[in-house]
Amino acid sequence: MASADLDFLEFERPIAELEAKIEELRYVGDDSEVSIGEEVARLQAKSRQLTEQIFRNLSSWQISQLARHPRRPYAADYIAAMFTDFEELHGDRAYADDAAMIGGVARFKGRPVMVIGEQKGRGTREKIERNFGMPRPEGYRKAARLMEMAERFGLPIMTFIDTPGAYPGVGAEERGQSEAIASNLMQMAGLNTPVLCTVIGEGGSGGALAIGVGDRLLMLQYSTYSVISPEGCASILWKSAERAAEAAEAMGITAERLAELGLVDEVIAEPLGGAHRDWDETAKRLSDSLSRHLADVEALDLEAMRAARYERLMAIGHFRE
Amino acid sequence: MSWFEKLMPSRIRTEGTARGKSVPEGLWTKCDACAAVLYRPELERNLEVCPKCDAHMRIGARRRLAVFLDAGDQVELGADLQPDDVLKFKDSKRYRDRLVQAQKATGERDALVAMSGHLHGLPVVAAAFEFQFMGGSMGAVVGERFVRAVNAAIEKKAPLVSFSASGGARMQEALFSLLQMAKTSAALGRLREAHLPFVSVLTDPTMGGVSASLAMLGDVVVAEPGALIGFAGPRVIEQTVRETLPAGFQRSEFLLEHGAIDLIIDRRQQRARLASLLAILTQAESPVVGVG
Fold first, then answer.
1. pLDDT at position B20, please?
2. CA of B290: how far to CAs of B63, B120, B270, in Å?
């Protein structure tokens, strides 16, 4: 079981154990005369009940672990499930192709669109290749190039956010990480084409925002979005990364909390147990939501759409006067 | 009086009895860079630049704008805006208490001061971050004041100048603070559409969310000498890459060499050189500028 341990979170353990038992029974059942169908059904019901119970009261910290779940679907998985004719386009035309940022043209329910997403890797080799989903400036510049092209050809843009943050490295600084992010923010605010942004996993700070300015912000139920990681916040404000759970709570990083604060347009409910338990169902729900929002945004003419996007941005933040 | 005391010029002679009365506290200060002992009023006259080694020390937002803009017609923008702690954020301390403390310590309501005025006769709008106010961090008030500065510039058809000094987004305002990056950048997009120049002056330090938004969006990006400028902090990078960073990494001179900024201007020349630059970008007559 040691290798499987990496595949579930501590609070998922009881569910995982129960399901391992069901699998075992099924295996036995294949070549046994004893009917164990009833027992399997009973255990399945129990597993469902247990999952409901555990998922009813998740803490912010548990949700941030779900957002980083190793089996959670990544951008490429959603692209494969929700789009057809996807053609990945590479490179920033200046320095490199950043594998932590993917993008390209595709069809969404038949409709030509531009898709952009932050991509984590599975397995050690791919994780390293994708730099754990932490884009470098060339990733943001590739996204900028694709967005500019989308605008030119009248393609709506859909972005999928999933990053611990923009990469904090020497090369990234030398090549202007700040400038790359900043110019995306300005560009996206003014794009003459619909932009729908969805946080599918981790919305890590400026690295997430750099593909997150648009007409709609959607979040999957167990995704998070924050100004700094709970660990980072805890180590600065509490002087200890151990206090991450408190930091997660204080910052309000979950989809539900952010929707209450009026910062998110829709929270897309995940299947019982989280997106990783049923990729197809999650993709279907996300796809339905995206097509509804796209229709709403497109009901406005481009000028009105851009003005509405601007007003949304200007309205963010509370102060007294 | 000994022969030595008689020889000493009277202006540096300190008589036992007069000591403490005629020399106020903090009249002398030390330069962190060259360790020279400096006479405070002289340092102030020199705009907090060390007269011995030219090290640029931090300068308060209000003072910076007061000496940058022409005297006489400076009008503050968004002065009444006050932070509102909607998240009731509490870490080891309550955000509300941190705010009160910062307000008392700086006399400011938040970490950005914005003014409308003139620069050598050219109408301009200028904004400056107050680093002493919670590390110049950007929350909702900073974002809103910046946007008002942009709007004032558009209304006056005047250029905008901003002086950054910030550790980044204000964690205590969580996602609201992150989104100020988008808000300020979007407003600068409007300024750009109005064909009005934006000069961004990066001062020590300009990091994180401020650097990754408004600060790097200048038509012309200027830095003060020796300022720390970057996205991630040096300690975070060191922990990530597990190697010592090269000397001068993330300093103004390093950024200039890597093509990230346009130029480095000494604080004492900023008034004159930015006036001249802005006059060119706005197709105005060359301003009559003296030194400083």
1. 43
2. 20, 9, 12
